[in-house]
């Protein structure tokens, strides 16, 4: 009878954890859809609003600028209000922004609506991965947090498919579809529990215990985890703690991954793929279909990454896949540089884009939100994740504002070769500064920061010192 109760409790806890992760990840779906739909809608917006290259870049980038401010503000907000309520605020902003963008009749209103959507996206990117990570058990944390990124790329793919199917209809419908997942997110979060770690940080230990008992396989496991949280718990820290030497390795690793996720070019391909391919001689319909294929490749890569982060490890996944992204971009750059994008070259171009998408999305895009949510101490996790998300959106803003200009200045071939070089540099950075976090509790990772064994280069140096002493 006791074994049956334990099995039932384990199944109930797993089901609740999965439900929490799934509903929370709807924020990722909105993130992906609202950032991705612009690539299809832009073809209509440029004609209706008479947008030149700069105008197209501003409309595209407005959402990124909003996301930059949204993620920076969400850190303090989530520490005060809680992870769950902050997600609800983001859902409300998604709803308001979607209504505004779908009814915009001027460039100014369009940009304002996109800024508001950006605030929601920035907040969601900061808080949803933390909420999922803080409520998940260590052995499942990887794939559950990657579920957020899976929702992002699924949202991007849905936006590409929607853009293709509605290519002969109004762009307003394309944007308006985003209201449904925003409603699901807002209503769903009403019924979910608070993060047990946030509750513990606020001194609400009994409430933290109750949540842990609901999402863990036994009361004993819940009690042990609560003890570890309380033993390693510090008071809520100010922003200045992120500059302290013992926290700095977490900042370097997480912010480095966040910057490289964008500087390696993945969103340049996502945002401007139809425009780039149209300029290379593809018809408009073919360009949109290529974007759908890119989205499907992103989903497959993220599904693989969601398995691999727990089976192989975060660091191992990054080091194994990124070389493929470098090779794909070198080939892609050559096809454009030597004008080989017609005939059989057109198919080679699509395959190179797909290869790059799989290798880059399956590594950096999978790891960014997971590593950012894992590596910071509880006392500054919200602020640390704000810094991660802010770095991501800041780099994204630079990429979205400059990609079309880079293509015009360097040519598509030169632009892709530049991204190949950045992907190669990413390999060196990961080898030196990004630790393996697979299977470790959040409290164990915090302990490695405090004892100086967090970064691979520091850990290797410490081991060498011990051997020679």
From TrEMBL:
Lineage top rank: taxon: Bacteria
Protein name in the entry: MFS transporter
Chief subcellular location: membrane
Keyword Cell membrane: yes
GO cellular component term, pick one: plasma membrane
Keywords: Cell membrane, Membrane, Sugar transport, Transmembrane, Transmembrane helix, Transport
Sequence intervals crossing the membrane: 12-33, 53-75, 87-105, 111-132, 144-165, 171-192, 250-274, 286-309, 321-340, 346-372, 384-404, 416-434
UniProt similarity note: Belongs to the major facilitator superfamily. Sugar transporter (TC 2.A.1.1) family.
Entry membrane topology: Multi-pass membrane protein
